[in-house]
Amino acid sequence: MSNEVYELKDNPVAPLPVKLLYVTEAKYDRDWHSSFHSHFFTELIYVTKGKGFFNLLQEKIPIQENQLVIVNENIDHTEESDPKSWLEYIALGIQGVFLTDKNNKENAPVSIFTINREREDVQYILKMLLAEVKQQKKPDLLILHNLLEVLLVHLFRNNNVELEKNEANIFHKDVSTAKHYIDLNFRENITLDQLAKITHINKYYLAHSFKKSLSLSPIEYLNKVRIQNSKYLLESTNHPISFISSISGFSSASYFSQAFKRLENISPLQYRKKSKAIMENKK
Fold first, then answer.
1. Alpha helix locations (H) across 76-118?
2. Cβ(87)–Cβ(81) under 8 Å?
3. InterPro entries, from UniProt (predicted)?
4. Is the whole-model pTM more than 0.90?
């Protein structure tokens, strides 16, 4: 019998300064409508099936199965599926780090990698993360953190991903939960009481923490997200203003117009005409 021993040097290993905020599994269907949004943390998006586009405000980037998108904080973005090959992906929200591409000299806020050698390992770890958060009992945070560390080490080792600490922008978990809920559900009737119930903290403390972190109250941020979505629809569709108001989450067209003008210093109709004129001039 042969027996090989691989000794490990006794080097101290420090845990990575990261915190997993959420794990999301998304599948495109005909009702999918993703609007531009941003996070104050890093998001990893791994395409498990299909293809589509990762959209920035000024750029549209093709993405496909087995590609990993790294989106750093405060980057307006959205995902769009190819209608013939529906997009599916797993997304992780990670706090405390800034991830970059070693080969990108400009240090771009968004990096895209095709996962080849590590594909099976990466897919297995992501499935383990999903299984842990989906179980009925409370997920084990230690297991989740360790799985995240293993995933990141695989990316560092073979995919030119580089990590920078981002301790200056560590936000309270409750603020992150509330913001993420608003980003996903801004079309619904969201109240401060509802956000407090979701985060399990006092609504006044939540409002204070949210304002301190984002310089906006939860409701101000909600309106900002709704306006951002409406701007995209005003630019890209011919839907009536009243319809855009409704599907963006506003209770009435008049309130929508007031909120839009307060933030943009222009009415929705004027914004649409201006954006159409700019597009015509580019042709």
1. none
2. yes
3. AraC-bd (IPR003313), Homeodomain-like_sf (IPR009057), HTH-like (IPR037923), HTH_AraC (IPR018060), HTH_AraC-typ_CS (IPR018062), RmlC-like_jellyroll (IPR014710)
4. no
pLDDT, tens digit, for every residue of 162-199? Answer: 666 554 444 567 887 888 889 888 999 999 999 999 88
d(CA 283, CA 274): 15
DSSP H or E stretch at residue 46: strand 42-49
Alpha carbons 249 and 106: distance in angstroms, whole number: 38
Q: Considering all CA atoms of the chain, what is the largest pairwise distance in Å, rounded to the nearest integer?
A: 82
- 217: amino acid identity, one letter: S
Q: What angle do CA 64, 65, 70 make, to 5 degrees?
A: 70
Whether residue 12 has pLDDT greater than 60:
no
Tokens 């630019």: give the residue: 235
Q: How far apart are CA 9 and CA 5, in angstroms?
A: 13
Return d(Cα 211, Cα 91) in angstroms, integer: 26
DSSP run (H or E) holding 255: helix 253-264
The closest alpha carbon to 276, from 263, 268, 225, 244, belongs to 268
User: CB neighbours of 242 closer than 8 A, spacing ≥ 6?
Assistant: 253
What share of residues in the chain are helix, strand, coil (percent, to 5)?
45, 25, 35
What is d(CA 62, CA 49) in angstroms, rounded to the nearest whole number? 14
Provide the strand spans (E) within the chain.
Answer: 19-27, 42-49, 51-56, 59-64, 67-71, 77-81, 88-95, 97-101, 110-114, 161-165
* Domains of the chain listed by start with CATH number: 19-168 (2.60.120.280), 172-283 (1.10.10.60)
List, for residues 42-91, the tens digit of each pLDDT value: 899 999 999 999 988 778 899 999 999 989 877 888 888 988 899 999 99
For the record, the structure tokens of 267 come out as: 């009415």
Q: For residue 237, how many C-alpha atoms fall within 13 Å in the half-sphere facing its CB?
A: 14
Residue in 272, 189, 191 with CA at minimum distance from that of residue 237? 272
> Are residues 56 and 107 in contact, defined by beta-carbon separation less than 8 angstroms?
no
